[in-house]
Write a structure and sequence with these properties.
Distance between the termini: 36 Å
Strand order of the largest sheet: 3-2-1-4-5-9-8
Radius of gyration: 16 Å
Structural class: alpha/beta
Low-confidence stretches: 9-22
Number of helices: 7
Shape: globular
Mean pLDDT: 88
Strand content: 25-35%
Largest sheet: 7 strands, mixed
Length: 204
């Protein structure tokens, strides 16, 4: 059974989101974004993105290194069809909370996805990020020290800001913070939304 958020992103609004977020200029910005985070991280060669949409982040990673092993998961079927047509990444249509893949990745990540997840479902997503990660987890989302519910394009209960990384650090005691940063929308070199990113690492 799908909750309201999942139905929302599986349906027409999710399809409109694809159109709004399919610009090639976003790939160029994402290349710089990921290069900054992955600098000196040569051990990272496989990636799993939860909530990949049409794969603009995965396409940027492919531009950085064509040998990267890329996998994307999204609940919207049209998004995955577009990603499969590109042909450079493994792609799965799935509710992230019930996702089943028999593989681990050097880095698992979300970018602008957790903010749209029903807060009651977050622990399921955290669990997937953690369990599918061999070592690193990247969270790039809107940040707030306290949970906040924001109206999104006229829709209520569709966008939530909170300390996602902090919550994961509390739940999983062997995680540590490697680095973090903020991307400002007026940055001409790396134009992104005003998102905070946090790179976490599993410690043995």
């Amino acid at each position: 059974m799908h909750n309201k958020q999942e139905k929302f992103w599986k349906g027409k609004f999710g399809d409109f989101y694809i159109k709004r977020n399919s610009k090639k200029s976003q790939i160029l910005s994402n290349i710089k974004f990921f290069k900054k985070i992955l600098k000196n991280k040569k051990s990272i060669n496989s990636f799993l993105e939860l909530g990949c949409n049409v794969g603009l982040n995965l396409r940027a990673l492919y531009k950085i290194n064509k040998k990267y092993e890329l996998t994307g998961v999204d609940i919207n079927q049209k998004s995955i069809q577009i990603l499969k047509k590109w042909g450079k990444a493994n792609a799965y249509v799935s509710n992230v909370g019930t996702l089943k893949i028999n593989q681990k990745f050097d880095l698992t990540f979300t970018k602008g996805v957790l903010i749209h997840i029903n807060p009651k479902e977050l622990k399921k997503i955290y669990n997937k990020l953690y369990n599918y990660s061999r070592k690193y987890i990247l969270i790039a989302e809107y940040y707030s020290p306290k949970p906040v519910n924001i109206t999104y394009r006229g829709k209520k209960n569709k966008l939530f800001k909170r300390d996602f990384a902090g919550e994961m650090l509390k739940i999983y005691k062997n995680l540590s913070l490697v680095s973090y940063g903020f991307n400002y929308h007026r940055d001409l070199e790396i134009p992104q939304d005003d998102i905070n990113w946090f790179l976490l690492k599993k410690n043995k």
